[in-house]
Structures are given as structure tokens and as C-alpha cells.
Amino acid sequence: MSIAIIGAGASGCVAAYFLLKAGLDVTLFDFSAPLRTLLPTGGGRCNLAHAEYDFKELAKNYPRGEKFLYSVFSKFSTYDTIALFEELGVETYVQEDGRIFPKSNSAKDVRDKILKKIKKADFIKEKITDVIPLESGFKIKTEKAEYFFSHVIISTGGKSSFKGLKHKIIPFTPSLVGLNADIKDLSGVCIKNVFSNDFKISGDILFTHFGISGPLIYKISSIKARDTFPYKISLNLYPQALQLQDLLNSSPHKELKNILSKYLPQNFVKHLLGDLAEVKAHKIDGKTRDSILNRIHNFELNITGTNRGEETVTAGGYNLNEISSKTMESKLYPNLYFTGECLDIDGFCGGFNLQNAWSTAYIASLSILQAI
Ligand SMILES: Cc1cc2nc3c(=O)[nH]c(=O)nc-3n(C[C@H](O)[C@H](O)[C@H](O)COP(=O)(O)OP(=O)(O)OC[C@H]3O[C@@H](n4cnc5c(N)ncnc54)[C@H](O)[C@@H]3O)c2cc1C
Fold this sequence. Notes:
The protein is α+β, with helices and mostly antiparallel strands. The chain has two domains: 3-174 and 313-371, FAD/NAD(P)-binding domain, CATH 3.50.50; 179-306, no CATH class. Helices cover 29% and strands 24% of the residues. Strand 8 (138-142) and strand 9 form a beta hairpin. The longest helix has 20 residues, at 352-371. The radius of gyration is 25 Å and the shape is elongated. The chain starts with a strand and ends with a helix. Bound molecules: flavin-adenine dinucleotide (FAD). Residues 6-12, 29-32, 36-37, 40-42, 47, 127-128, 155-158, 160, 312-313, 340-342, 351-354, 357 line the site of flavin-adenine dinucleotide.
């Protein structure tokens, strides 16, 4: 048996770890440094999992792949990830919001600990240009050479595909990304705890020079990753009850912008209200008051695209219908496996994408070990 892993990212390196631990030889291919992709995760702190211990609940955090992951997570889920990292010498802790980090708060430390454990793998720094299934095994072509292996794991992350394989690819689209909207002069304005009227979820938003970003927007971009542009989103900028009439009555000579700046950033209030921002409270009639409340509670934005290149993950990838969720093996070619983000699986922010990488890496390696 000879095993090639294409892609030395999160899932490829952990698959290598499981196989080496069982005494098998492994060749890892990557055109770049191994685990380079781990370094920016969690803002350099590596949010490696999420403290959701029920596997079905965990799977709900994947707009694409939820059902497929039931079987995967039933075998390797959050507790297993924590145990895996303990085994690798990485102690973890749970942050208040449920995100799990290494105690070192260092993605570099996590990378180094994994690399130390997979030193025995052959590492070939070449870009794979194609994978060709043979009657028995696979030919792997690079820009420099050809290699032959009996078993291949594809762990190429976001956007790669190989012509030699007849696997269908669901088109790649950016996810967990800022959204373009026709809104100017608000760059840098942040509003906390905004509610999405469309999806009943909350989070902070941040206006940018291209539109809008922040945790709530990332989540919306993920839910809408397969929608076509333009689309509208509706936000409740102040989800608590706002007794605007009482506020107007209690400060009749104050301008609206000064009354509302207690609740929303003042430069945003000016944008929202235009000329009305300068009007004194006692001049606001009932109809205008209701229209202001409506603008606050149903703030609509026309979304025209994503901020290309900023995406954290890509939606799309190898079609799950052609892969077994029990083994991660191809249904088209025996001894070909897939792990991580190259699959048509992507999760929200919070450690879910790395959890997918570890879990699918475990299942693929276990299947190879069971086949010996
Ligand atoms: C800035 C940023 C922050 C993130 N933070 C988090 C976080 O905190 N928590 C979380 O859960 N997720 C996070 N993610 C997502 C997470 O990093 C990915 O989902 C995860 O790395 C996917 O693992 P993977 O093994 O599938 O692919 P990757 O880790 O992307 O690895 C794929 C590897 O394959 C190699 N490769 C690709 N094509 C070829 C080829 N043809 N030949 C040779 N090599 C090839 C690439 O060079 C790469 O090294 C973040 C992503 C980004 C961009």
C-alpha cells in the first residue's frame, strides 16, 4: 500500500498523523509550506473547534453539508478533537462564546506541534496538476514528474479540482465574507447586536469602504452563498423596544440626531435620517416618528456582491452525492478519499470549518486502516 495526500493543510496533515501513528508510510504533496493555512486562523489564535458536544446540533452550523456530517460527527466530534489535540501536546480552553482555542493562543504553536508529529512523512513540494485513476491505483502528475500510489487522499482545501477525475464539482462561491452594498461615507461605523429580520440571528456589523462586514454579515453571506446578486437584506439596528415618542416628549428642543445618538452612532443617524437629523423633537409628528422607527427596525440594504478575495471559506467543492459519508471514499473510484474544505461542506465562523477538517481526516484515515 502506498498513500499520497494531496494538500498539506489542516485536514491533510492530520490525516497524515493518524496514518503514521498506525505505522503506515505517507507522502504529502503541497506547492507551499505545510500548514501554512493554519497560521491566519482565528486571527492567529487558531479557533480549532466549538464547544457544541451534540453531533446533530454541531452539524446545524454547516449551511452546506449538515446531513452528510451526521455520520462523520457521530464518529469524530468536538470531544475527539480536544482529545486529539491533547495527544498532539496542545491543551485547549473554551472561550465565553463557545469557541475553542489552544491555551497558547497561538496558531503557530498548533502548527509546530502537528508538524513535529508528522516529521516521518515524505514531503514533496510540488503542485499537483492532475490525478488520473488507473486500473489499479492512481497516477499523480505534477509540473515536474509523475508518481504512482495505491491510495490517494484529496485535501486541497478551497478551490482545486483535477480534470482526470470524473467527480462533479459544485461551483465555488465565497462564504464568510464582507458584502458589497451601495452605501457611502459610513466606513468604520460599527453597530453592536444588530438583528437580521430575514434569518432571526444577531451580531455586530461594521460598515466598510465597499459595503458592510462583521460577524452578522459573515453569517448572512454564508446562508446566502448560493444566491444570485443583487439581493436585499433587512436589519433591525436596535432590536430592543425604542420608546421614541417618550424620548421626543422628554426633550422637545433637542435635535433628533442628539436624541438618537444614545442608541446608534451619530454619523449613522445622520445617514439614516438625512435632513430630519437636524429637526427638533417637538416638530416630529406621529407619521414621521413611525417612519423613523421603521427605518431603524427595518433597515434595508441592496447587496450587490461579495468583497472578493476576503472570503474565509468557499462554498462548493466535490459533490457529496459521489462520496460516502461513512468512509470519505469516492463512490466512483475505490481507494480515493476526500477531506476538509475541498468537499461541498462549509460552516459558520466559530471553529466549525476546522472541525470539518479534523473529522473528515479521521474518517478517511480510519477507512484506509480498516481496509488493510
Ligand atoms: C483568514 C482565515 C481564518 C480562518 N480561521 C478559521 C478559524 O479560526 N477556525 C476555523 O474553523 N476555520 C478557519 N478558517 C477556515 C479553515 O482555515 C479552513 O476551512 C481549513 O484550513 C480547511 O482545511 P483543508 O485541509 O481542507 O484545506 P487547507 O487548510 O486550505 O489546505 C489545503 C492545502 O492544499 C494545498 N493545495 C491545494 N491545491 C493543491 C495542488 N494542486 N497541489 C498541491 N497542493 C495543493 C494548499 O497549498 C493548502 O496547503 C479560516 C480561513 C481563513 C482564510
